Known about the structure:
Layout: E1 2-12, E2 18-29, E3 34-38, H1 45-53, E4 60-65, E5 68-69, E6 77-80, H2 92-96, H3 98-102, H4 107-120, H5 136-149, E7 154-158, H6 166-182, E8 192-196, H7 200-206, E9 209-214, E10 217-223, H8 232-235, H9 238-250, H10 254-259
Parallel strand pairs: 3-8, 3-9, 6-7, 7-8
Antiparallel strand pairs: 1-2, 1-4, 4-5, 9-10
Amino acid sequence: MIEFENVGQSFPRPDGSRVVVADNINAVIEEGEFVCIIGPSGCGKTTLLHQVAGLNLPQTGEIRVHGRKVTAPGPDRGIVFQKDAVFPWMKVIDNVEYGLACRNVPKGERRRHAMAYLDAVNLADVADAWPKQLSGGMLKRVAIATVFANGAEVLLLDEPFGPLDYLTRRQLHRVLLDLWSNRTEPGGKRRTVLFVTHDIDEALTLADRVLVMDKGRIVKDMRLDQPRPRTDNDLATPDLLEAKHVLLRHLGLEALAGEAV
Length: 261
């Protein structure tokens, strides 16, 4: 569970004024939920994600993960960035098991664990390759395998598929959902996922809930009950077209909302 209580954050502008990126945010992400945050650039969605990760802390209020106040990064949270964050000097398998090595997991055990996740993302055959030998989509699979292998309870993804082409994104949506559905925590629970995106269709494909942010506030909290996986045909059904219509309106894109239904 992730809890936001009166979270506030602002940054100074050159003219002396301040830009607010988190304006007294209160929200709860339930354990095992897959939640997408969408909104225009500068609305605060990435700042919120980084605060959950402990990379920076809110100026006011607090964030709790499973009841514990976030004060720093920790192994209970894993993050996948938009830019590749794979160590280029390590082979693929060494990247995936790096977090386990830092926790002194025995080599044989961590190798088996890492290989299981590489197999789950269809990369077992490139375990001994160098990152420079992989495509962009393959590098994202390595990053996803890594956060799952490290056993984080909360997965934080910051526009991870933004730079990729449409077909690769759709393939990775399925990879991510399969891992989230089938590779649970040790207690048998699904990981809690917070996923930042600019892409409404991506949010509608992946999420249990979609939070719309604008000017540092959550302006819409939409629940999606449609079963997954959601195909392109599913996105054209009346329920999901109506959901897209509502999200576009809350993003201030009324003209596009008219085209979505």
